[in-house]
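Handout, section 4.2: multi-component inputs.
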Amino acid sequence: MRKFFRRNTAGYVFLTPWLIGFFFLALGPILVSLYLSFTRYDMVSAPVWDGLGNYQYMFEYDRRFWKALEVTFTFVAFSVPLRLAAALGVAMLLDKGLRTIGLYRAIFYLPSLLGASIAIALLWREMFGLNGVINQVLSMVGITGKGWITDPDTSIYTIVVLAMWQFGSPMLIFLAGLRGIPRDLYEAAEIDGTSRFRQFRRITLPMLAPVIFFNLVLQTIEAFKTFTSAFIISNGTGAPADSLLFYTVYLFNEAFKFFRMGYASALAWVLLLIIAAFTALAFATSKYWVHYENERD
Amino acid sequence: MKLTRRTLLGTMGAAAAASALPFKAMAASQSIRHFWWGNPTRDERTFKVIEMFQASHPDIAVQGETIGWGDYWTKMATQTAGGNMADVIQMAHTYIHEYVQRGGVVPLNDYIGNGIDLSHYDAGANDIGTMGGDLYGINIGATCPSIPYNKRVFEEAGVEFDPLAWTTDDFAAACEKITSSTGGAVTGSEDLSLYMETFEIFCRQSGADFYTADGKLTMPVEEVAAWWQMWKDLRDAGVVEGKDQTVQLDKGMADLGLIRGTTATTFRWANQTGALQGLMQDPLGVAIVPQRAGMQSGHFVLPSMFLCLSRDAGDVPAALAYIDNWVNDEETLKVLGIDRGIPPSQKGRDILAPQLNETDAMVVKYFGDTQSQILSTPNIGPKGSGEVRDSFMRTGTEVVLGNMSPQDAADQFIHDAEGILIRASR
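Output:
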């Protein structure tokens, strides 16, 4: 134990700011929200103990809860692979030892800094609106556009595209990972006359597996928590027809529009369990596809 | 100088005295916040009133905060939760029950005649803002439902109708005429199927009400179905705005088809006519919500909004002075005009009479001309009725998108609404 701490001292020192924030700012509210999830609490009067009432209502009666899950799962299923693919694709393009690499890295990272902002969400709403840029471009090539955001069949994909565009942080991590792959592996493959695609499949992907795994877990968690873009684009309502009712948007509305903080806390804990389950699943399957170099086979 | 205990204390005392001076001046300068939902015209008027109030009350700093209707209630709820509501808040009849029941606004009984002078108010003007014998919301303007229409478009299409007595059939015919004569460039009307406010008038024409006085849901499912069917027919005929516009809920004024010139009518409370006119070139007219043949009128008058004192009001006397100024000061009433409704006192109306512009005069005339058609004021919805309104728009959207029949959607909506009210009453 002591040895463990001595070995990891530096790590904990670097973690200190986060640890302080966690213990003094986050831990209390987290525990209180667990308590509140078993109560009815309108934020004005005192919470009333309700046992499992919130959870029972959620699973037995609340159609919008299931709808929110459907929307969120759809989003995660599309946005995470697309974002990772975009990140890896751009990272591989940038991994060519260009002299201006720093500039390109910054340019491609930019959307991630902007993407979560309200301004971009507003811009997105205009772009995909009935008279937006997307439709104007489409009309130039003779395609009649439609209200991409106001059609419940397509609205969620506008947000998937927005999410995909924000591939900056996984891209940087992929870049670092690509740099770590020994060049001699590729040289050996070249000599053997292996095709580029085969090199990608047989060298890049396996060597990158730990990084892919890391990105997958992180991005999945991020995707489940998506809020701003959906909230802004749907005017906070999840409209049209609840097609943008992301789990977090629903949670926000329950808490801050309808004053059901107890129920919203229960929703938050269920989301935590869902994310934990997915993370656990990723870890459980990782031993079949993630190989660490310093691991003994 | 050698620092002794005495000089030290003396210095500290002097410093304390010096710092107390500006501190005292600061304590005397009170500060309050006023929060309202607005539109460009209303915001301009309100900030002018705040400016004037500050000129006459230099010791009270007033901070005005404004936002559109759609975001107003979210922000208000967040502030309520955070315990930092504005001192003076604007309230709507759809939400006043919720805030009274949750203790977000406080009774004003003790301040009437003792801080706030309402002696000139019309009899009964504050009935709707009174709950359980306590006055919570001061009526700051009466309004009534109206159909603002683009006069130029109506005339060019050759629509002839009586704005004070037209039927739903006349309305459909007008929509058809406008759409066909403009080749579809302008549709007859915005699709109002998701406007629960307009549906309330339709519903009351049949003799039914949304709620009983004690907050029970009495909205007949057949009326909901009939309403959505009527709009479905208009949509199918292609004479109202398309679904892409319709499913955007609670749009800002500038996004309305009436303002953008793509539709000829919409629904608004009559007091908003001036603000609409301010955003468009073509002259506006106001018509009553169309009647259904053989049925009674569904028209009514109600306070368009209230001023309330919030639970979090820190400086009650300053807030009272502000409210009192709002309802009594002549210059203030002049600046406010009828943007928030017709003043609920003869004094207020007399002050405004000489200065009304053309649009305002038209609205006042409309208000007077429809007096004979007024049915009783509808009962205010119970806690949860705001959420019922959301559910109405949500389920109605399914009809607009063609995913549900009007009848099925109506069945589902009523079922959901009952569930919402049961849950809200717990």
